[in-house]
Amino acid sequence: MKAELIKKIKETESVFSFIFKPEKDISWKAGQFIFYSIPHSHPDSRGINRHFTISSAPWEKNIMLTSRFDFENGSSFKKALFDLKPGNRIEVSDISGDFFTKDTEKKIVFIAGGIGITPYRSMLLDFAHRGRAPEVTVLYGNKNKDIVFKKTLDKLVRANNWLNIRYVIEPDLIDAETVKNNVSDMYNCVYYISGPPVMVRKIEDMLPGMDINKENINVDYFPGYKD
Q1: Domain ranges of the chain
Q2: Chain centroid to CA 70: how far?
Q3: Mean pLDDT in residue range 12-20
Q4: 127, 102, 96, 107: which is closest to 33 by C-alpha?
Q5: Of 197, 179, 189, 195, which Cα lies nearest the Cα of 213?
Q6: Burial group, residue 39, by CB count within 10 angstroms (0-12, 13-18, 19+)
Q7: Distance between CA atoms of 61 and 203, rounded to whole angstroms?
Q8: Rounded CA gap, 61 and 181, in Å?
């Protein structure tokens, strides 16, 4: 299916969002991903296809791709993506992924590292749109105060009393004390972890050591990003 680029948004110095309008209506669950195909000259070993989490909420209809860019050492795909102009059309296909919230009476903890915030933008906007949500705590670790989606996240906090967000800026890191100090009733929560692989593995290993049931831990790795 074709999708047309209608807008490019600078989120931070190195993170940009691309909003695509599909040629026909599609549906997805907040947190899922979709495959993109951008044919371009001299593709590198990673090729012309890539999947990205859909950072827009399902009710927004258009597909938003949000990614970090390394303008010196980035892949040929990323360069082709960045060079797209409004009106350009690309191929999108195969919505997939099981990193989405299930109906539960338990509270939710979203743990994000850097660009790993993208599925949570979709999930939080979806909760707010539906007018129902469990208590949600977001622990968002970032290298600096140039935080992706900060205006949207802060607006959601102001409008919804079920949401609390704690930004953790390096040299501070999300550790056991961060969880204990910010998550109420932490043994009755479902945890979602999204970000670079090393960060995700570290927290995935840490939580069971805090007596968090492994069945309540869900992970989403963002390969290709440095920790």
Answers
A1: 2-96, 107-221
A2: 18
A3: 97
A4: 96
A5: 189
A6: exposed
A7: 33
A8: 37
Give the relative orientation of helices 118-130 and 150-159 as an angle to the nearest 10 degrees: 30
C-alpha span between 133 and 50 (Å, rounded): 32
Cα 179 to Cα 138: distance, rounded to the nearest angstrom: 10
Both tokens assigned to 6: 């209608």
User: How confident is the model over 36-63, as a mean pLDDT?
Assistant: 94
Place of tokens 């492994």: 214
CA separation for the pair 154, 145 (Å, rounded): 14
What is 107-221's CATH topology?
Rossmann fold (3.40.50)
The SS3 of residue 179 is helix
For the cut 70, the answer to whether the pLDDT of residue 28 exceeds it is yes
CB-CB contact of 138 with 163 (8 Å): yes
For residue 174, the one-letter residue type is I
Token pair for 170: 């390096």
Whether domain 2-96 has CATH 2.40.30.10: yes
CA distance 197 to 179: 19
Categorize the per-residue pLDDT at 224 as very low, low, confident or very high, splitting at 50, 70 and 90: low
Q: Report the predicted TM-score, pTM, of the whole model to 2 decimal places.
A: 0.93
| Alpha carbon 182 to chain centroid, angstroms | 21
> Is 55 in contact with 119 (CB distance < 8 Å)?
yes
